[in-house]
What we know:
Blueprint: E1 6-10, H1 15-19, H2 27-53, H3 62-65, E2 70-75, E3 80-85, H4 91-97, E4 99-102, E5 109-112, H5 115-118, E6 136-139, E7 146-152, E8 155-163, E9 165-168, H6 178-195
Helix pairs in contact: 2-6
Amino acid sequence: MSTAPVIIVNTSLVEALLARTKKKVRPGILMSVVLEKAKRVVHDNFQNLNVLRNRYGSNFYGKWADDSAVTPVVLNGGDKGRLELLDENGALRHKIYGGKLTARRAKFLTIPISEQAKFQSARGSNAAHGEIPGLFLVRGKNGRGLFLAAEENGNLVVHYLLRKTVTHKPHPEVLPSAAQFAHAVQSACEEFAGGV
């Protein structure tokens, strides 16, 4: 099991604002408010990504758009805090930092090539969309590459590329930007300071 991604939130961005508050505020209380606002930013970001990704029939980011998937933790008596993202199988960590995927339960990874394949499983385990009928193994030119294809209307249509491993590049934009967090922290402090 891999370590869950963690987002560190720091109140140093808003120290001047905190100095203006009329009452003495315990940093831990303020940090709790800041973390809740930052959690909302993460939640909204995953919801937006999920809407974009759902065009292809995937709900990949949906599990992190759930409120229970992000846990706020106050550290150092309230000077710092962190948001821990639930990532039981390491999928989110892999998406953010990149890395190598290797086939484990099957001999090959199936990478969808055709539009139809993006909505369906090569194994037929996607109950909502079923499977593509008549898939068979095809070798590429010069024996390079393996593909799963089907015959449709007398033509050979390639649906999946087969690979033993795939290396993904990192996608740090999966998490909200530093500017989005800074804005969330500042607005949380302003709201909090206004109510103090």
